[in-house]
Amino acid sequence: MTDSHNSGQHKDREAAAAEVRRMWQPTPSWTQPDPTPPATTPPPPPPAQDPPADTPAPKSSQATPDPDEVEDEAADEAKPDALSQDFPGDSWSQPAEAAKPAPDPWTKQPAKETAADPWSKSAASSEPASESWSKQSAQEPATESWSRTGTPEPAADPWSQPAHEKAPARDLQSPQLSPQAQQFFPQGVPNQQQPDRQVSYRADELLQALPIPREAPAEKGVRSVLRLRPGTNERLERIARATAATAFRRPVTVTIANPKGGSGKTPTTLLLAGALGQARGGGVVAWDNNELRGNMHLRTHDTNSRSTVTDLLQAMQMLTQPDARLGDVGAYLRHQVSGQYDVLTSATTTYAQIEAKDFDQIHRLLSRFYKVLVIDTGNNEGSSNWREAMKASDVLVIPIKWKSLSCAAAVQMLEELDHQGPDAQRLIRRAVIAVSNGPGDVNKEVEKQLRPYFESRAAAVVDIPMDQHIAAEGPLDHSALQPATRRAALELAAKVAEQITIALNVPR
Question: Taking a C-beta distance cutoff of 8 angstroms, is the pair 84, 6 a contact?
Fold first, then answer.
């Protein structure tokens, strides 16, 4: 009898273990099925078979444990031998009392024990026989799904729903995932109905979702040979080049001005035009707006064109026709191959002085065919073409040397512009100071006193190192400049492009 009883328990234990594994498999609804049959009140046993109230049931009369008891035995891994031996103190093999119906296999029944098994069902016989995994006690609130309680509410814990009851409609937003779990389930709980989301097919959003292209390898030094990523200096140079190549929504005008002669206006104009032309791939023109005679024709290469602004004005009626082309205008300009920009030189004779109406005609014509106009000015602030250049400017570049006369003229010009109204004041705030010193031009005391002043008045101060190619006062060839000079010119172009972007956001 005992061997057959143990053999039956062994088989039932294996079946119960398989049932437990089946129960814990995830289901599409994410609620654990209740293997317990629908909770109904069992019929009372016949009176003839009830043992006396004071007589315990013999151990040999116990029938084969039901599946619920075997299931609990398989889940209790801490007592592997508690089911194969009859210990007097085993709470799972206590005889049932005569005054109560058949005991629930999940409940401990010691006479004086008050601490309930944290994984046991409620001892209240008035509630339906439903499975409960809660740990709630009567003193703790019943809202916590794993708290201890003697009488858990079936609806409080999703694991304690009776099998015969239909699960209520779940909120589409529940269960809430923790931030750690959301990185593994960004779309929500698998197999759970998710709320309908509006899918956007806008082109800009789809383009932003594309992966960022990989950074190109270095192009200079040992890193280029080893195909490594660019260093800090090369990366900054790439950023400056991309900034200088900003696509503006309309043609823009940059004016270089300092009333003091010899302050470096023409070299700064050519350096800036070349840096912008190389970064943008063309579309830049440098214009010598000196009212009488400038020297840009001496600092640029003569490319089969000796025409000046005077010749351009004489052909203005033909060039302003609707069918006029860039090539027609280019016949009166000098193209600089190394810098990828064109040059319009000033008049070389004394009888052809440029006035305000002439400036307006040339400015409208060049704005039709070029994206960036870099204008070099003369030394007379009172001339009409000088004032018109200031009105048409988006950004002002002030070339200086750390010398008393050069800095004093720039300070006086800024003070004069400060009294010309709000537009001139905004032009001062967007100004860029270009410091270009030749051999022996640096006065440390002047720099110490005036650098803080220019930094406070202007948007940026860019230092251009001394270059022998510029100091030679010949045609300026960008390919002949030192690498440090080219980087400084590119930085100047980037600062100017930043201020142009700011100026375009402010209505004129």
Answer: yes
Count of alpha carbons within 13 Å of 276, Cβ hemisphere only? 31
pTM, full prediction: 0.60
By DSSP bridging, strand 341-344 and strand 284-289 are parallel
DSSP letters, 19-57, are HHHHHTS--TT------SPP--PPPPPPGGGPPPTT-PP
Contact status, residue 116 vs residue 108, Cβ threshold 8 Å: yes
Alpha-carbon dihedral angle through residues 207, 208, 213, 219, given to the nearest 10 degrees? 110
Lowest mean pLDDT among 40-49, 105-114, 232-241, 475-484: 105-114
Q: Average the pLDDT over 23-31 and give the result.
A: 52
Residues 333, 284: Cα–Cα separation, whole Å: 12
Secondary structure of residue 111 in the 3-state scheme: coil
pLDDT in tens, 246-266: 999 999 999 999 999 999 999
Q: Which residues, in sequence order, are bridge partners of residue 341?
A: 336
Residue 126's pLDDT is 42
The C-alpha atoms of residue 156 and residue 146 are separated, in whole angstroms, by 10
Among 37, 118, 117, 20, CA closest to 72: 20
